[in-house]
């Protein structure tokens, strides 16, 4: 039996990722007590990537039930209350509701790239980069296209904001997640009032004022409401979960990634690798120019962050790993997925520094940084390249970091200083492989904490604990003193041979984008 759980001193974080919904329960010192998860997948319908709201709730209930089962197996109890809770999810996208709280159009996720006209018009109007996936770009594209539901919109939010609203009745959003809806003023830590006024003038008569549509912005540690009776039943139909549990502000997966790695102070950053891959670097000063490769978002406390977001992360790598797992079974030597990954990643270590002349594009979806509206995964090689398993796997891992490196080079051009990059995500579970190659791609030290594979759900649980017990300390201090004070962290410095090899690979990668564009046009 665990006293933290029975006495309601544990904190719960739930994150809705692109392929998995995960719940994580932690004690007061941030140790993991139990986890639960549920696999799900987006659907491509009517040329848009989406998830149904039914899938949201069935998945949340399944992940929470899995966590409760883990608690029961480990401690012989059923949790009824927590010190605090919090929800995070993939950022951006479009969830528009009418005055009765009814969804007006299918959920449009961050993965959609149909907002080019709107994003370009807004970037020029507002003077800041508005990426294709931002909520305001989705809204304005619907305005430009004169979609019939637009005049009926009364609330616009993200996936985390929607789930939080359903569980607490509060239409609020953490500042980090809100910064992917509309630009944030770093002084007020709220939507930029001048830019709001510019947009309202542009869209006047076509859509209600943004102040009436967007969620209220909250910083980390703020009171974001509490679990309602209906919310408790919605999450836990068994009826065991009690209402009244305080909630942290709902956050995006970028914010929880920063928390999960302890990278919320200037000159630090983190890379989160999953279905997408993105880097966050906390800024010391504003950037000098607008760059389409960079988003300006914030930490969960509202500090300015430059974000390099790539739509395509480790999904193509996972597809190849699954094929090798199937081959092992067909050959009569079945292996678990984890064993397959370990074997393939270990093989990559003995590959040539430049991956033997092989080239991999992991683009399942469009990739704005690479100038691609659609994706076509490719493995390309010249006749004199060396096709071996080590080279192939090194090329696969380099390919995950390829577009990210293109975006990070823009930050380097701005003179942004980076003392250390932290990494998290499942691909870093095999010690010293992906971490080493990321260090080569960034030419900077990369640190991985023991908690890295727990990812955003753990980070959201930490934000919930901070909301319950962080009074008097800023988030950076809380993380340093409570969460990471004794946490095992392994840091890998870039190897000069790997740096040179990845640089050669990236030169071919840039040149080969013409091949990728031709594949999109032809296939």
Structural overview:
Helix 3 packs across helix 4 and helix 14 packs across helix 17 (496-522). The chain is globular and about 65 Å long. The chain has 523 residues and is of the alpha/beta class. It has 17 helices and 22 strands. The N and C termini lie far apart (58 Å). The model has no long low-confidence stretch (mean pLDDT 94).
Provide the fold topology.
Blueprint: H1 3-6, E1 11-16, E2 20-26, E3 32-39, E4 43-45, E5 48-50, H2 53-75, E6 84-89, E7 95-97, H3 116-126, H4 135-144, E8 155-157, H5 159-168, E9 172-174, H6 175-178, E10 184-185, E11 190-191, H7 193-203, H8 210-213, E12 216-218, H9 229-235, E13 251-252, H10 253-261, E14 268-273, E15 277-282, E16 295-298, E17 304-310, H11 315-330, H12 337-348, E18 359-361, E19 378-380, H13 389-413, E20 420-424, H14 434-442, E21 446-449, H15 455-469, H16 475-483, E22 489-492, H17 496-522
Parallel strand pairs: 1-6, 6-13, 9-12, 14-20, 20-21
Antiparallel strand pairs: 1-2, 2-3, 4-5, 7-8, 10-11, 14-15, 15-17, 16-17, 18-19, 21-22
Helix pairs in contact: 3-4, 10-15, 11-12, 12-13, 13-14, 13-17, 14-17
């Amino acid at each position: 039996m665990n006293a933290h759980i029975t006495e309601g001193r544990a904190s719960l974080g739930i994150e809705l990722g692109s392929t998995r919904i995960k719940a994580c329960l932690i004690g007061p010192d941030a140790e993991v007590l139990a986890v639960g998860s549920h696999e799900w997948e987006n659907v491509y319908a009517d040329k848009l990537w989406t998830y149904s709201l039914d899938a949201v709730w069935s998945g949340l209930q399944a992940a929470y039930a899995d966590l409760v089962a883990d608690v029961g197996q480990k401690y012989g109890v059923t949790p009824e209350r927590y010190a605090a809770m919090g929800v995070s999810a993939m950022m951006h996208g479009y969830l528009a509701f009418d005055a009765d709280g009814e969804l007006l159009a299918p959920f449009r996720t961050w993965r959609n790239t149909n907002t080019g006209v709107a994003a370009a018009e807004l970037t020029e109007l507002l003077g800041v980069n508005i990426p294709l996936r931002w909520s305001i770009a989705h809204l304005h594209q619907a305005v430009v296209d004169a979609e019939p539901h637009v005049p009926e919109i009364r609330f616009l939010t993200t996936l985390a904001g929607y789930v939080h609203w359903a569980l607490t009745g509060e239409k609020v959003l953490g500042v980090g997640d809100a910064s992917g809806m509309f630009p944030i003023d770093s002084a007020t830590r709220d939507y930029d009032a001048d830019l709001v006024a510019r947009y309202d003038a542009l869209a006047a008569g076509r859509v209600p004022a943004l102040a009436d549509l967007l969620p209220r912005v909250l910083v980390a540690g703020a009171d974001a409401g509490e679990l309602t009776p209906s919310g408790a039943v919605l999450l836990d139909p068994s009826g065991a979960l009690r209402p009244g549990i305080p909630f942290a502000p709902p956050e995006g997966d970028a914010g929880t990634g920063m928390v999960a790695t302890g990278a919320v102070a200037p000159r630090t950053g983190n890379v989160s690798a999953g279905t997408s891959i993105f880097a966050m670097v906390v800024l010391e000063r504003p950037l000098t120019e607008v760059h389409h490769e960079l988003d300006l978002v914030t930490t969960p406390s509202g500090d300015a962050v430059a974000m390099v977001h790539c739509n395509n992360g480790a999904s193509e790598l996972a597809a190849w790993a699954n094929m090798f797992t199937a081959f092992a079974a067909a050959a009569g030597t079945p292996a678990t997925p984890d064993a397959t990954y370990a074997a393939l990643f270990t093989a990559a270590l003995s590959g040539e520094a430049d991956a033997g002349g092989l080239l991999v594009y992991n683009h399942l979806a469009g990739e704005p940084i690479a100038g691609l509206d659609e994706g076509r995964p490719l493995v390309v090689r010249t006749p004199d390249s060396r096709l071996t398993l080590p080279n192939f796997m090194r090329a696969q891992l380099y390919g995950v970091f390829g577009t990210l490196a293109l975006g990070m080079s823009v930050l380097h051009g701005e003179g942004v200083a980076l003392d250390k990059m932290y990494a998290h995500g499942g691909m870093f579970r095999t010690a010293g492989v992906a971490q080493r190659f990321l260090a080569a791609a960034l030419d900077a030290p990369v640190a991985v904490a023991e908690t890295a594979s727990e990812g955003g759900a753990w980070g959201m649980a930490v934000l919930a604990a901070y909301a319950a017990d962080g009074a008097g300390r800023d988030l950076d201090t809380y993380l340093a003193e409570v969460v990471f004070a004794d946490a095992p962290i392994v840091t890998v410095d870039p190897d000069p041979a790997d740096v040179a090899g990845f640089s050669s690979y990236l030169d071919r990668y840039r040149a080969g984008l013409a091949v990728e564009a031709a594949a999109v046009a032809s296939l």
